[in-house]
C-alpha cells in the first residue's frame, strides 16, 4: 500500500499517551520556570556542551541556555504534528485491513514516546546546565550518556519488534 493510498483512520490516543504528554509538558514548563527564577543569578558563562563522560567541555553565554527549550519545543511541535498523521509514517510491514489500526497506533505510540523523551532530556539538560553554572553540580554525571542511549533506543526497539510481530 503506497503512502498516498493509506486511509486516514481515527485511532484515539491512549490514556498512557495523554498522561505522558501531560507529564512531559509539565516537566518542561517547570524547567522554564526554573530557568526564569535563576536567570538573574546565572553567571555570564554557562556550560555550552558536555562530553561523553558528562563533563563540561565548552562554556558559552547564558543566552545559549534558551536554545535547549527552544529546540525541545520546536521538535515537540514537529513530532506532535506527525503523531496526528500515522498514514504518512513509514512501516516495516505491509499494511492491510487486519493490521492497519494496530500499526497506526503502534507507530504513533513510538513517536509519542520519542517526542516526550526528547522533551524530558532537553529539559534535564537545561536544568543541569544551570545547576552546573550556579556551582550546584559539577557535570551531567557518568550515567547520563548510557541512560540517554537506553531511553532513546529501548523504546524504538520495543515498538519495532512489536510492529513486526503483529504483521
From TrEMBL:
Residues in DUF1648 domain copies: 26-72
Keywords, comma-separated and alphabetical: Membrane, Transmembrane, Transmembrane helix
Pfam families in the record: DUF1648 (PF07853)
Transmembrane residue ranges: 20-40, 65-82, 117-134, 140-161
Entry keyword GTP-binding: no
Protein name per Swiss-Prot or TrEMBL: Membrane protein
Organism of derivation: Bhargavaea ullalensis
